Structure formats: structure tokens, C-alpha cells
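Structure request: DUF2490 domain-containing protein, Alteraurantiacibacter lauratis.
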Amino acid sequence: MTRLQWGEITRIVLTTALARLAAFLALLAPVPALATQDDGQLWLYLVGVVPLEDGVVSTLEFSPRRRENADQVLVRGSVDFRVAPGLDVGGGTAWVENAGGHEFRLHQQLQWATGPLQLRSRVEQRFFAGADRAQLRLRQRVQVTVPVAERLRGILNGELLYIAVPENRAQSARVDSWRLNAMASYRLSPRAELAAGYLAIYVPRPGPGDRLSHVPQIRLTLR
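Returned structure:
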């Protein structure tokens, strides 16, 4: 495939992704007026990125999350393999602990990046104590990263989380949540990066009303 053809493919993908992100922003815009329940949270991240060999990267993540209803701690590990320029496949596991119990997760993902654009598709199998079966959740994310100043990057992403197979057989497939995340990331050194941002989580619910969570985030990444 020629460089011109690759350029045309990249232009089409970038245009489509940005259009979808714009549609997501338009959907989220009227949410504050419609939501009947708002809550505040605080998510902290400590992330370690360890190259294992050429084209193979391991990521370890520890994330305590302060929430109004019940605090939560997430520990996740993953390995990603570079299979082509800009294309990674990988997977991993996670353990989530909260006041209501615990959750074990497996995930598989595909990531493609070109220029400022990154697309990620993730499939999660979530195991809850006492559930009828494992929940199957699909996650589709569009992210744009742009340089703002020396050592400083701006990151904007939108993500749809969809429950394809609920953990309880009496439930139906549904949208789990829409997420919009804006962050500023500053490179402290070649091996350390500090980021801060805001995450909005919109959860549509048929009964008690939709929920909108406002989540400040702080992330420290070590390489």
C-alpha cells in the first residue's frame, strides 16, 4: 500500500473518530439538566510501565477511588504486544475491592494510534461474587492527544461502556455508562509523568433516574 493510500485511510479514520467524539460531546451536553442524581468522586492512579522486550510492554496500575457511596480500590496488570506500526494487542487482569464486595476482571484489547489519534476496543469479563454468570462488558474509546507546551500534553477522550451480557440472567443488555475525560499531563523527567484532569461519568438508569458523577483525577506514571 502506498504512502498516499495510507494517508487517505488515516484522514478518513481521523475524521470519523472526531465526528463520533463530537457526537458524544453533544449527547453529554444536556445531561446536567436531565440528571436527577449527581455525586462527586476522587480517583488516584499510580502506574508503572515496564518494557519486557522489544515491542512488549507490561503495565501495572494501583488506583484508590474515593466515592460517596463506597470507596473502591482497583489493582490491574496488563501486557501489550506491538504487532504492526501503531497497532497493539494485549490483555490482563484486575481485582476490584469495595465495601459491597469484590470483583475479578479479565480483559482483552486492541489499540491503534496514528498521530494525535488513538482508538481502543476492550472486552472485559467481570466476575462478581454471587452472580449468575460472568458479565461481558464492551468498551470503545476515542482519544486525542496534543502537545500544549514543552513537556505538557493535553488529552481528551470519550468512551462508551456497554454491557452485552449482564451478570444476572433476568437483566437485559444495556449501556453501562458514557465517559468524557479531559487531562493535562506534564513530563517531570524521562521516567516520570504527572497528570491531572476531570472525568464525567453519565449512567443512564430506567428507575431512580440517571446519574452523573464528577471525578477529579490525579495520575503518576513511572517508566
